[in-house]
Amino acid sequence: MSYIFYLFFFMLCAGCGIKKPVYIENFQQKEILAKYSDLPDTPFLVTLQSIETVPDEHDQVQLFYTTMMPSQELADFYQQQMERCGWELLAESHAQDRLLYYTKPTQICSILISENKLTIYLCKKGA
Fold first, then answer.
1. Are 122 and 115 in contact (CB under 8 A)?
2. What CA–CA distance (Å, rounded) separates 109 from 124?
3. 108-113 mean pLDDT
4. Do 117 and 126 meet the contact criterion of CB atoms below 8 Å apart?
5. I need a labelling partner for 41 at 20 to 30 A (CA). Which of 12, 56, 68, 83 fits?
6. What phi and psi, each to the nearest 5 degrees, are found at residue 96?
7. Quick one: pLDDT band at residue 127, thresholds 50, 70, 90?
8. Distance between CA atoms of 12 and 50, rounded to whole angstroms?
9. How remote is the C-alpha of 47 from its chain's centroid?
10. Residue 107 burial by CB count (10 A; 0-12/13-18/19+): exposed, middle or buried?
11. Within 13 Å, how many C-alpha atoms sit on residue 85's CB side?
12. What CA–CA distance (Å, rounded) separates 108 from 80?
């Protein structure tokens, strides 16, 4: 009988000692994205790959995505949606890649669209 007690006790201790994965990075990414809620949602065929920020400061952020959308469709989407969210298009480049440069009273946003990649850079003015 005592063997069963010890077996149960060791199983309980072993089960409590297993660490569950902590998704801090995923939580931080969601927190950063929520902070920039004045940006439009990404299109359906766009997948977030990574977020880069200045350590302990989220006033400058780069969002890296992969996409299967054609560049022109992606540019059209952001031109419509950024305006809807209150951003003003200041400049646009159609060189090798597509670059859209937007501003708000206190923020700057550049959107770089290249083959199968999308990069969004956000910062406060003066940062």
1. no
2. 9
3. 93
4. no
5. 56
6. -65, -45
7. low
8. 38
9. 9
10. middle
11. 20
12. 17
